[in-house]
Amino acid sequence: MKLYSYFRSSAAYRARIALNLKNIAYETVPIHLLKDGGQQRRPEFRAINPQMRVPALVTSTGDVLIQSLAIIEYLEETHPHPPFLPRDVTARAHARALADIIACDIHPLNNLLALRYLKRQMHQEQSAIDAWYHHWVIEGFEAFEALAQSGPYACGNEVTIADIFLVPQVANARRLNVPLDGFPKIVAIDAACLKLAAFDRARPEKQPDAE
Ligand SMILES: N[C@@H](CCC(=O)N[C@@H](CS)C(=O)NCC(=O)O)C(=O)O
Fold first, then answer.
1. Pocket test for ligand 1, best of 45, 51, 54, 164 (most atoms within 8 A of CB)
2. Calpha distance 169→34 (Å, rounded)
């Protein structure tokens, strides 16, 4: 498989963790989101993903998949072991809800495109943009912290989709100096996940395009 990725993209980081957990070998194709006005806007990449975002996955059958959640669900359906979801249906809904707090309620408000829009089109000061970023992370993390189990992982003893979404969001929060002292469960879950090789190998600083 081939993963179009950017080392700092938290959405691509989710896909990298998922591929590693499923033990699927893949080649990284780096797409630099800032260089040359953003390589994601080049016609070659736009032909792959008309949304001009990473990640995009080329599967072993040559199909192109976009959107990290769709990619992760595809991997789950094609490679069921180890599972990303608990067996119990209620527990599955709970794991999905934790992932959705990040995928639907934190990340879309805080990704590079949204922050750039605040700066360039809405003419906001960097301090206001930082406050916006911190606000939505803290708001989402408060709910995640209240709902997560006490570990070692977000849904208890097994790694689930909730952890796959949490760890990249924590990395971003740290990079943007969001204080995490109010989130002891999140910090402990993040540390437990990063002890696993699949998570560790997916870290931004371990990617071939890391700067
Ligand atoms: N919901 C999408 C979000 C993808 C996304 O926004 N990716 C960002 C990087 S984290 C991106 O490619 N941004 C393009 C840009 O900044 O122009 C997913 O989960 O895959």
1. 54
2. 20
